[in-house]
Amino acid sequence: MDYDLPIVTFGFINCNRLFYLKSCVESLLKCTQDYKNKELIIVDNASIEAGTDEYLEGLKDRGFKIVKNKERDPNNEFARGLNTIIDMAKGKYVCPLAGDMQFIVEGGWLKDYVDIYEGLDEFVGSILFDAQRAVRVTKGIYSNIMGNNLGFVFDYQRGPFTPSCNSFFSKEKVDKYIGKWSTEKTSHEGETSAEAEIDAKIKKMKMEGLISWNQLMPLHPVAAAIYTDSRGTMGRVRGNRIFGDYWEAKKENLYYELVKYDTALDNQHENIDKPLGIEQVVKTVGFEAPIDKSGSWKKVHLDPKNVKPSDWRDIT
What we know:
By secondary structure, this protein is of the alpha/beta class.
């Protein structure tokens, strides 16, 4: 409730996944009610999904800044959305979001993010939001635990900065060291993407001693990617089709149960010295989590070029 805290800008990049966008937006608002000094921006990439225009108009009435692009540019629209959000941001800190994850911790944590970043500024590139699969967590190389409330660790196995968003970082650092994401790419995925180019640039700067950044992670993740396909994926847009199972949240735009901040603090040391995995922090609402027989969260990539007709549908 302290307006003396720095402004944090949250920017959502959306294209034809209204159900996910609603969950991401509404859960963020609910989970950061205690932090009033926020700026909220949505960049919509020519969505045609029914209900999107009406929802965006409603968000404008609630104080959101809305940018609606009239034409699709699949290979560059995400990078362009990142640039737009960072250019528009008035916040000291910027959090671009792909709009396909849900926040799960109610209250407290956003001030913890600000406090830890300000305390370790020279050494922090970005701070992740979303929970990782336990199998990925076990591969990390972690620092000692830092933070007065919500605990944080550096993961030295990860790059110093997350160029594909869903993280918290300093606008000043982006302006000074990173600049713009390229919007002249022939692919939005893989080694030739704009995100891969930024990742390589930052790693090179660190190798040359120009920066001392590391990736910071909360012990108890504050969000989780939305998995609506039982095979371990989500609905993904390619052209005017959506691939994979995609459906509306069963209850009040929530795919996952919310966790009280104090409960998150009590549970955060369950893994002792590393972040909790998505298997530990997520409780689904009205559907079964995509867990395999070993207890691990499933993950699969659907290739639009090699799917069954039942794996996609036209967006209407």
